Every structure is written in structure tokens, then in C-alpha cells.
């Protein structure tokens, strides 16, 4: 039998800014704090640190919130 595909969503629970890192943490089963620290480190280590937050907001606007989190 076919398994349903695992979808990437932003998360409303554990959300700090846009819920992107919380959603990635749920998807990869990693603590979102580790992902947030990696994002900040990447922002400071990359030559053009401005591109990291810009990409974060673009991806955050593209990925939808999890529709199952809003259901009671």
C-alpha cells in the first residue's frame, strides 16, 4: 500500500518568527533551536550575510502553515 507523502509545513506551535524553523524541526525530527543557531551562524559566516534572512523570508512566504494544527 502506498504511504502518503511527508509534507513540509510551517508550524504554529513553537513558532518564533514565521514558524519555518519549527516546521523544519518537525519534518527532520530535530530541535528547532539547533536549526535557528545554524541559521544565525550561516548568516554571520557567509560573505553576503544579507542573503540568508532574505531567503528565509522568501521560503517562509512560500511554505504554507500546517492545516491540521488549526483543527480542534
Please give a handful of descriptors for the protein shown.
72 residues; 49% helix
What is the first-to-last residue Cα distance?
29 Å
**Low-pLDDT regions:** none
SS elements, strand count:
0
Overall form: elongated
- Which radius of gyration do the C-alpha atoms yield? 14 Å
Structural class: mainly alpha
Percentage of residues in strands: under 5%
What is the H/E order? Answer: HHH
Oligomeric nature of the chains: single chain
Mean pLDDT: 85
Give a topology summary.
Layout: H1 20-28, H2 32-45, H3 51-62
Notes on the protein architecture:
There is one protein chain. This protein has 72 residues and is mainly α. The chain has a domain at 20-62. It is built from three helices and no strands. The longest helix has 14 residues, at 32-45.
